């Protein structure tokens, strides 16, 4: 088994170190294909290429690239496929048929494969690949590929349950049944309702394939129905605590306790509206609302206090997940700044083992257990 220690590089003395980081939620291919961002560029190069663009609110404010991930020693991530299907009466953005949504996710997969072809990324789908990738990152170079676990955010693109088998064969290893609004298989954020017959079928297939169920975005009713029916591996890739921001997108303490009881790991996200109450999209600024990485540490600490240890929380930033620097902690310029978190945790009294657990080991151990 891999221990955390080998992944910590001490820079000068025993006090300053660079920690290996596992980010459990990044919409990389969405940025490549819908924002037209070449993620092999530096963050600055991407920003320069977007000067004057007004089609999206986060133009020139991106924070993620594969280059920045290497600079920040973020050697593994959970990378998403994401495409919503919306019914005619819905006013959410999305595709008008599940077939279009499926095709969109297939394009996203093609981008990940193209990154593999040029050695920028490498797929991690089993224990052997995971362990050898971690070995590689014990001594990384400027060219070491970023490892990714493929995850589907919202299951609407599963035209039929059989598509899940096809997706698994393509390397899919985690899936969240819902995203925003009512979905085919569950009700997501800002909607209310259960998982229905189709959701139950999906859960059965998820468990049969030993896929990881991502509890993120399930509305309360769908969350508890899922917990009742599902017995396989579960994590929450990017989710914060309702105690800080009272919204259905956030977990109640009861939900967190349920997940802890199932040995889940919860990744803490960096979307500003989930970090401080009363954020107004497009109006509030990180500076005016005092949003910094400190709130991430508060969320981490809250989960550690509920579990009585540091074993159930990690990092799941969602950076560039439809928002950029305008809606990020003000002390983060690029994803490489995640390296500030270990010090903040240390200042809060966390020891080195705790910090390693949070920064990478909890998600790594979760995968090792799930795949062995
Ligand atoms: Zn999300």
Which features does this protein show?
372 residues; alpha/beta; seven-stranded parallel beta sheet; two-stranded antiparallel sheet; binds zinc ion
How would you characterize the overall build of this protein?
The protein is of the alpha/beta class and 372 residues long. The protein has 13 helices and eleven strands. The strands form three sheets. Strands 3, 4, 5, 6, 7, 8 and 9 form a seven-stranded parallel β-sheet that branches. Helix 5 links the parallel strand 5 (121-123) and strand 6 (146-153). The termini are close together. The chain binds zinc ion (ZN). Zinc ion binds next to loops.
User: Sheet bearing the most strands, described?
Assistant: 7 strands, parallel
Mean pLDDT: 95
Indicate the radius of gyration in whole angstroms. 19 Å
End-to-end C-alpha gap:
11 Å
Oligomer: single chain
Write the topology of this structure.
Blueprint lengths: L7 E3 L6 E3 L1 E6 L1 H7 L8 H7 L16 H6 L2 E8 L16 H20 L3 E3 L3 H10 L9 E8 L8 H8 L2 E5 L19 H13 L3 E3 L5 H10 L4 E2 L17 H9 L4 E3 L17 H4 L3 H15 L5 E3 L25 H7 L4 H20 L1
Parallel strand pairs: 3-4, 4-6, 5-6, 6-7, 7-8, 8-9, 10-11
Antiparallel strand pairs: 1-2
Helix pairs in contact: 1-4, 12-13
